[in-house]
Amino acid sequence: MTRTGRAVPITLDHERHLRFDFNALADLEQALGYSLAAMPAIDALGIRAVRAFVWAGLSHEDPKLTPRDAGDLLQTYLDAGGSFDELGAKLTEALQLAGYARKDVPDAPLPSAPATGSPTPST
Description:
Blueprint: E1 8-11, E2 15-18, H1 22-32, H2 47-58, H3 67-79, H4 84-97
Antiparallel strand pairs: 1-2
Helix pairs in contact: 1-2, 2-3
């Protein structure tokens, strides 16, 4: 995949770049309500958690972006034929570029439907 610095391009409403810098990771932990070290496998995340990951990963480009805005971008992405598998791969790659996820672990796609009882953000 083509990368912009330590970011991963993704076409939502237009091309954007997922990047998890230190502040994005800290904001993500706050939104999720738990440490990323305790995060379940990426394929077990609920919809609110997926939205929080996208929000945090795009916040470097648009600091005024809200989680609801990220949800709207995700809906545009899905309406245009985007898939959760591709989204999961891009989020995983962006986390790897940040040095957070191990590169020797195979990509685990996000679920195609919300997981029941999965940890989701408290906010």
